[in-house]
Design brief:
The chain is mainly alpha-helical. Helix content is about 70%, strand content about 0%.
Amino acid sequence: MHIENELKTKTMNTTEAKGTWNEIKGKLKMKFATLTDNDLLFEKGKKDEMIGRLQIKLGKSSEELKKIIEAL
């Protein structure tokens, strides 16, 4: 029973995280029309790679991007 609850919790956290990222992604695309789904592709363990793509495309620093995302 304990393992079932743990799996449900992990699944919910993953689902919630994906839902939140999809919402942020949509807001970023509205704010910066030049962004594509590929620019905002977020894969586990590749956060830095995505931030690098956004830095190049938008001409923003890592700190600027973090502030923009937090403000959404």
